[in-house]
Amino acid sequence: MLELNKIHCGDNCDLLGQLPRECIDLVVTSPPYDSLRAYGGHSWDFFGVAWQLKRVLKPGGVIVWVVADATEDGSETGTSMEQALHFKRLGLNLHDTMIWIKDGGGAIGSQLCYTQNTEFVFVFSKGLPKAVNLLRDKPNLSAGKDKSGVGRRNANGEHKIERRTVSADFSRRNNWWIVPPERGEHPAVFPFALARDHIATWSNPGDLVLDPFSGSGTTAKAAKELGRRFLGFEINAEYCAIAERRIAQQVLELEAV
User: Fold this and answer.
1) Is the pLDDT of residue 160 over 50?
2) Are residues 113 and 60 part of one domain?
3) Which CA distances in Å does 97 have to 11, 32, 211?
4) Do 68 and 114 belong together in one domain?
5) How many domains does the chain have?
6) CA torsion, points 96, 52, 187, 230, in degrees to nearest 10?
7) Which of 40, 95, 139, 216 is most buried, by the most CB atoms less than 10 A from its CB?
8) Among the listed ranges 7-21, 54-68, 96-110, which one has the minimum average pLDDT value?
9) pLDDT-derived band at 143, boundaries 50, 70, 90
10) What pLDDT was estimated at residue 235?
11) What average pLDDT does the segment 126-137 reach?
């Protein structure tokens, strides 16, 4: 087993192969999208990574896969959807198709369409997710009200009389999240809030969280902050150094409190 709570520099397929079966509770990652970024000229094997992730994921484990598509010759590539379907063919459930809305940021795929400021967040699970801590921070407009009364219709067309509990102050989020993009030393920084909220939702304290495309270490940093163990894989030595600095800075901040 590789050393935990560390960013390992190397090819992610090779490093995944060093992990035992069914040892990972949660994967939160954002792989390179088509050819939109060079990332130091490194390539990666989607099919190899997907197979290895399925192998190392525990029963009930979850993969959060954040992706988007390039526009080539006037058409979006559809790579994101092809990847989602491949994970299903491997036997994982497509538990949810979420949308990340990049408030304040966007890309122009074509002058003939609307500005693109969303990305897919595919949530895959190996069976039913074992950790589901849905975030409830959406203000409820009917908070404190008893909305019992006429409900949906029966098969014969008559309304059912439903008894409902009094509405809470907050309800669970929608599956589209508005998270502003971030900038940093990495060419495509993974927003801290996006990683943190998915880790909080799909894992419990002490669980092991993996990012096979660690980049500047956002997933590792968020996992550590939330009391999870982590593993990060990154092939670019420059990005590994950035990630290590960010995690080390966090340790110093915690010790100073």
Assistant:
1) yes
2) yes
3) 28, 19, 19
4) yes
5) 2
6) 80
7) 216
8) 96-110
9) low
10) 94
11) 97
Tokens 């998915």 sit at which residue? 198
Helical ranges in the chain per DSSP H = 12-16, 46-56, 79-89, 192-202, 218-225, 237-256
Residue, of 252 and 120, whose pLDDT is higher: 120
**pLDDT one-digit tens code per residue, 166-207:** 678 888 999 999 998 877 655 567 899 999 999 999 999 999
Q: Contact at 8 Å (CB) between 87 and 124? A: yes
Distance CA 125, CA 94 (A): 7
Kindly state whether residues 245 and 188 are assigned to the same domain: yes
DSSP 3-state percent helix, strand, coil across the chain (nearest 5): 25, 25, 45
Q: Domain span at residue 208?
A: 6-135+176-256
The torsion angles phi and psi of 98, rounded to 5 degrees, stand at: -100, 165
3-state secondary structure of 238: helix
- Alpha-carbon torsion (201, 207, 211, 215), positive or negative: positive
156 and 218 assigned to the same domain = no
Q: Any bridge partners for residue 72, and if so which?
A: 75
